[in-house]
Amino acid sequence: MKFFIDTANLAHIKEAQDLGVLDGVTTNPSLMAKEGISGKDNVLRHYKAICDLVDGDVSAEVIATDFEGMIREGEELAELDDKIVVKIPMIKEGIKALKYFSSRGIKTNCTLVFSAGQALLAAKAGATYVSPFIGRLDDISFDGMDLIDQIRVIYDNYEYDTQILAASVRHPIHIIKCAEIGADVMTGPLSAILALLKHPLTDSGLATFLADHAKSNQ
Ligand code: G3P
Fold this sequence. Notes:
This protein has helices at residues 10-19, 29-34, 40-53, 67-80, 92-103, 116-124, 134-139, 144-158, 172-181, 190-195, 200-216, and strands at residues 2-6, 24-26, 57-61, 84-89, 108-113, 129-132, 163-166, 185-188. By secondary structure, the protein is α/β, with parallel strands linked by helices. An 8-stranded parallel barrel has the order 1-2-3-4-5-6-7-8, surrounded by 7 helices.
């Protein structure tokens, strides 16, 4: 399973990249705003800075919601760097935009996916990635993992190439469940990735090993 980090924070991206397990980055307009990035030139510069930091795909989201606007913005984003994946919302105009970009070999990520039907449409439109938001489904008492499961079955039934990018991942259990089901990619914050490291028996075991070594080497 590929690991993407879901942030526009350069320090977090660098820390995950330095760990050696990072396969890409996803961003969204809220994450860009959180870093205080505004204005078209600054936004494009920031995406370029992210591309320069990572080996892997970098999702950059369009703001337009009409077909022409999405194409204009998406082409401009795609020209920035080969790593750019144009992130398109799951709306009617977005489906047309996914089809347009896929027919031109431009990578896409269909975002804000909350149902299997939406995921099926995204695959038929040729999306490179589909992003079901599992954390936000959990927030409203729907099991986000059930959706990952459903999409996996549907994509496998018809051998769609679209990769399932489990998004809105909040904690390590989400990551482990995604891996069990067979999501192609998960994207989450640095905290969720680092939380995979943690086990109290690892900490206490290491403390004992080091203490025993120190005693026998006095
Ligand atoms: O990739 C989508 C993600 O950014 C949404 O995450 O935590 O805002 O639901 P969250």
